[in-house]
Write a structure and sequence with these properties.
The chain has 21 helices and 14 strands. By secondary structure, it is an alpha/beta fold. The strands form 4 sheets. The chain has a 5-stranded parallel beta sheet with strand order 2-1-3-4-5, with helices on both faces. A 5-stranded parallel beta sheet has the order 7-8-11-6-12. It has a two-stranded antiparallel ribbon with strand order 9-10.
């Protein structure tokens, strides 16, 4: 679609399976057209207008053409064309599905703070850099998707209760649901503990969706995915010139989450120095951007997650005790999938229904052998691995029923389990713990050797954390490779 058409002609189209809507408010038609082409190349339906009043007409048309579900869209508003920050807040009240990105010619920290507190997803200073714009666009579309889902749910329900997206019938998961219901309405800090892939991020989203902050930003960051040298800037932002490469001011995740919720995953990987900074911002809701002496205050709820128990880290002195007590106000322990195998059929069918909708194909379900293979498998990658298994099967299967042949080979060839006949003929009286010691030792040793004695890789493959692996190695006599020669 050309971005040079008349600004007075309303846009009447749907994204046709694209990324969503892009409305650009800019008095400079050339700058607007350039940004418009950038968005179009990423599958968005674009409209360039010169004022927020004209944009309002487009928003109304979009909403009228999306009556079954709230639309997904991003408004890029030039700071000079868009007016004061209060306008952003009013805009979001009228169109809760929208994500707003403010573009500034001469940006400054007070202006950025005002616009972000009003609800903008990001505040960019021109000239725009493609890489930075890509990141902002992805974040804005995710933000709009969440706001759109929330708006649609609120519209369909007569009560204020948000439809549950968590799935599972296991009693331990029911306990998780009860805790989510109990903590959602407050602002207490919540710490989720569980192995990677158990659904901690989804639980954090659910808490936010059920909270009074549901219409405000939900910002997520995995502390383990960001290098230590960049984590402080990512969380708290920085000012121009704070370090080499800091060519413009940057808004951090805490400020981006103002009035909403921030979810910090893999908090166990934060360094002691970062732990101290996090302790202050969680206690006081105040921080200073990197390179700035100006203190910024935020109103944000903090949710955290760890993929290994923090108590051993506190005992070892690698995790601050005061931070641990500060973040562990409400604890939610998410069980691994292998401990709730009865939930596997329920989850698998739900994932298949989602794939059916995304692929535009109809599946009856899983064959009996396929379902039995999935239930028997331990899923070291937990729910995330199950989701990937179902997605793979749905993509390659051309039949209404997914058979066992469409599952990955490692699911259909499980390790041999001793039979009843073996037990009766070869049984030597001993405790179950003693009987399992040697098989467990062989498994752990094989995994260590296959990974060159990398404890991190071995723990990930076995679906346990490194602390648990260390304990098993000591108890099984696997402390040093040179002891195991031959």
């Amino acid at each position: 679609m050309s971005t040079s058409n008349s600004n007075t002609t309303p846009l009447r189209m749907t994204p046709n399976g694209g990324s969503g809507w892009g409305i650009i408010v800019d008095r400079d038609p050339h700058a607007g057209a350039t940004l418009g082409r950038f968005l179009e190349n990423r599958g968005m339906a674009v409209r360039v207008v010169s004022s927020v009043k004209e944009a309002e007409t487009q928003f109304s048309i979009i909403e009228a053409e999306n009556t079954e579900a709230s639309p997904v869209g991003v408004a890029f508003i030039d700071g000079e064309s868009g007016g004061p920050a209060e306008l952003v807040g009013n805009l979001l009240k009228r169109h809760p599905w929208l994500a707003v990105v403010v573009l500034a010619t001469y940006g400054n920290v007070p202006s950025a703070v005002a616009h972000l507190r009003a609800g903008a997803v990001d505040y960019l200073v021109r000239p725009l850099v493609d890489a930075e714009l890509e990141i902002t666009l992805d974040r804005a579309l995710q933000h709009s998707t969440v706001r759109s889902e929330n708006a649609s749910l609120r519209g369909r329900l007569s009560s204020a209760r948000v439809a549950r997206r968590l799935i599972g019938h296991d009693p331990r998961m029911h306990r998780v649901y009860e805790l989510v219901d109990a903590v959602a309405a407050g602002r207490s800090t919540v710490l989720m503990t569980g192995e990677s892939g158990t659904g901690k991020s989804l639980i954090a989203h659910e808490i936010h969706a059920r909270s009074p902050r549901h219409a405000s930003p939900f910002v997520e960051l995995s502390c383990g995915s960001i290098p230590e040298t960049l984590l402080e800037s990512e969380l708290f932002g920085h000012v121009k010139g704070a370090f080499t490469g800091a060519h413009t001011d940057k808004v951090g995740r805490f400020l981006a989450a103002d009035k909403g919720t921030i979810f910090l995953d893999e908090i166990n990987s934060a360094s002691p120095a970062m732990q101290l900074k996090l302790l202050r911002v969680i206690q006081e809701r105040k921080f200073e951007p990197v390179g700035s002496s100006e203190t910024v205050e935020v109103d944000v709820r903090v949710l955290l997650a760890t993929n290994q128990p923090l108590e051993p880290l506190v005992a070892a002195g690698t995790f601050r005790q005061d931070l641990y007590y500060r973040i562990n106000v409400v604890g939610i322990d998410v069980p691994p999938l292998r401990d709730r195998a009865a939930d596997i059929p329920v989850l698998a069918r739900a994932f298949l229904a989602r794939q059916s909708a995304e692929l535009g194909r109809q599946f009856v379900g899983f064959g009996e052998a396929a379902m039995q293979a999935m239930v028997a498998y331990a899923f070291p990658g937990n729910v995330r691995e199950l989701q990937n298994v179902v997605e793979r099967a749905a993509v390659i299967c051309r039949e209404p029923v997914i058979g066992v042949e469409y599952l990955p080979p490692h699911l259909t060839k499980p390790a041999r389990v001793p039979s009843a006949a073996d037990s009766e003929s070869d049984w030597v009286p001993q405790t179950l713990e003693a009987a399992m010691r040697e098989p467990e030792r062989r498994i752990v040793l094989a995994a260590l050797r296959a990974n060159g004695w990398s404890r991190q890789k071995t723990a990930e493959q076995l679906g346990i954390n490194r602390t648990t692996l260390y304990k098993k190695m000591r108890s099984l006599g696997l402390d040093a490779p040179d002891r195991l020669a031959g």
